[in-house]
Automatic annotation (TrEMBL):
The lineage of its organism: Eukaryota, Fungi, Fungi incertae sedis, Mucoromycota, Glomeromycotina. This is 27134_t:CDS:1.
């Protein structure tokens, strides 16, 4: 059985990843929807995990994914007036 602290850490990682996706893909509703779906799918797939080490590994992966989105993904908007992104 996982501790309350671990459960809270999982929930916080989930929320942080969703928030980061929303900020990164601001205005791109399809990208946000797909990112949210994939995140939900991955967290749900691991919902019955009880090994604390494995749970912490997965939490770290979620946090790393959020940091990757923040530092490596750019959403460009096309400007028809200048014909540039």
């Amino acid at each position: 059985m996982t501790s309350t602290k671990t459960r809270r850490a999982v929930l916080n990682a989930y929320k942080y990843l969703l928030k980061t996706q929303k900020e990164t893909f601001h205005g791109d509703f399809l990208a946000i929807s797909e990112a949210r779906r994939k995140t939900y799918e991955e967290f749900l797939k691991n919902k019955d995990e009880t090994d604390e080490k494995e749970i912490n590994k997965q939490i770290n992966q979620a946090l790393e994914a959020a940091e990757f989105l923040k530092s490596n993904v750019i959403q460009a908007v096309f400007d028809e007036k200048t014909n540039r992104f």
